[in-house]
Structure formats: C-alpha cells, structure tokens
Amino acid sequence: MTRTTDAVHRAVRAQVSARAGALWEVARRLHADPEHAFAEHRAAALLSGELEHAGFDVERGVAGMPTAFTARSGRGRPAVALLMEYDALPGLGHACGHNLIAAAGLGAALAVAAVPEAAAGTVLAVGTPAEEGGGGKALEVEAGVFDDVDAALMFHPGVYSWARAPLTAQVQYRVAFHGRAAHPTGSPTEGVDALAALVELFNVLAVLGRRLPEGSHVQGIVTHGGTATNIVPEYAEGLFGLRAATTTALADLTERLRVCADGVARATGTTAEVERATVRYEHFRDSEVLSERFAAHLARDGIALSPPAPGVFLGSSDIGNVSTRVPAIHPFVAIMGEHGSDHTPEFAEAAASPRAREVLLAAARALACTAADVLLSGELRDAAWARHRAG
Fold it and tell me: Interior CA angle at 158 toward 152 and 164, to 5°?
C-alpha cells in the first residue's frame, strides 16, 4: 500500500466523517417514513436529490421503474457502483435495515466523488427499489445498468458480522388446480375437488423436502381454497416459495415442483397450472478479493468480520443477480446481538439505534475506501474479474 493510497483512504474517510450528521439524518428520515416495493417515491427523491445537489448526473426512472435511479460522477472506465436499497416491509417498516444501506451507499458515493485523487473513472450510485420481493436489481441488470461497471458494492445490517453473504437463489411459483364444482351431498361423484388436489401437493412436497439438498426448501401457502363449504371447490391455488443454495439447484427444484403438480393432477383428475409469480433471484457469488479489502477497511473502525457459519443461509436477495454480472460484495455487519433476527419489530428498532449509527458510518467509510481501491488499482480489478470469470 503506497503513501498515495493511504492519503486517499484518509481523505475519503474524512469526507464520510464530515457528513456523519447528514447521513444519519437521511437514515432516520427513511426509517420514519417507510415505503414499500416500487412505491418508494419519497425515498428515491431524497437520495437522488442529495446526489444531484452534489453534482452527480442523475437519471430517474431507470429500467422502467419510477423509483429507480442512477447518479453518475465522472465518465468512462474504471467504474464502481455503490448500491442503495430503500424499500421497507409491510407492517414492519425498516426491519431489514434498508435505511442504513441507503445512507451508507449515499455516503460512500459522495465521499469518493469529493476526492479528486480517488475518483478516477466513474462513481455510479444506483438506487435499487423493491429488494423485498420485487427484484429491482434484477430488472436493472436486464436493462444493462451494470454493463460497464467493474464492481458493485453494498453492505447489509444484520445480527452477524460476516465478510460474505450466504444468500440462496429464490423464486415463487403459483400452482393452480382446476376441477369441477358439485354439491358434496347431492351429487358427490360429480365433483372433482381442486382443493383436495392442492392439499395433496402440500403432502407430496413435504415428503420431497426430506431428501432435498442442503439449502433447498419449499414453503407454500393457500391463496384460494374455494368459495363455500357446500360446494366442491372447482378451483384452488397456492403460492410456493422455492429456495436453493445455487441457481442450478433452484432450476432442479422448480422442475420437481412441476413434476409433483402434474402427478397430483393426473391422480386426482384435475388439471394443473404452474407459472412463475416473481422475478428469480440468483444465488450470491461473493467477490472474495473485494470482500477481503472491505473487511480490512472496516477493521479500522474496530469492527471485525468473520467467515459465515457453515450451513447457515441468510435468505435471498437480488444482489445475487448483480453478482452474476460483475464482481460484487454484500457483507453483513451486526447492529444487534445474534439472539435477534431481521424482519422483526426489534430489528426495526435497532435500525434507528446508536449502534446503527456507528455501523452506518463505519460501513460507509469502508465502502468508500474499497470503491477508491477499485478505481485506482488495475491489479485489484484484474484479480476481482479473474476470480469472477473463474466462477
């Protein structure tokens, strides 16, 4: 590490620290005003407005999403993307800490762009709506937002401090069965019970679940089960969430769901429809080269990151889709103890706590320093791309 690089790190860290109050105010405003997937209008306006005020070239409504945006400082390659999530959970607010993700990405982008020695090439701040099920990042990948980017960086608050995110592939499917209505007493043999077929599918999937590989599971709910108890249901529908450790394993699980539904339909005399109901989230491919760099920078603030615990998976995210396109990081940094869990009222409270403020600023400094390293070091970029292409 050269003195020049040391000086750049000090400069970008100082830029984040100088904005500490403003960044925490952004995080608190987002926390106090939660908005849900694809409806984060005030959050997107706040964040894009801050970047525009700082001189970034802002494009709103990217990838066909009104609450998605990009903000660009500089031009050409190399290019580094700082990602911001800002959707909340219905009924729980920012129980996943996206208010902190947004403020940290904002702070890192502003800090790097403010240091001329660090901002070689392009600093791209990307507003990514609807992580909680809508797949904003997946849509941005398809729209080419990351086509000319060398690295995508973000962090996530959590109950663990892990350098790498064990995030699975995920998708939801709607399964519907069509039968024939009849009176269950007057003409029971005329009916073909679609609900019974759906229930049988749950039973078959429960048996299947006992022999699925690690990281794979199916969780379903009944979304329509009939209209009255004195009518044999002619239509029944369920929504099934599929997860798997890898995207390939998810494709295999999806095919198993189809086979099970078709088999149940043949056995029960119904017909089955199986259709994808959501954007598919790819499994996350960590850029170890960049994650190690982030962890080293975060350690300057006294926060140590460890490898994830074996066999533990922390859900799914559309950052996985980004990680298929460019080297990406998604470390977790704890804002509460391991006894807790995100997607709870307690985690939402923790996302506005004094500890959350400390983590936000430390993560913003580490993201800014990592982004500067990507822009300034061709050797680091080459290593990250080589690892990425090797799979």
Answer: 45
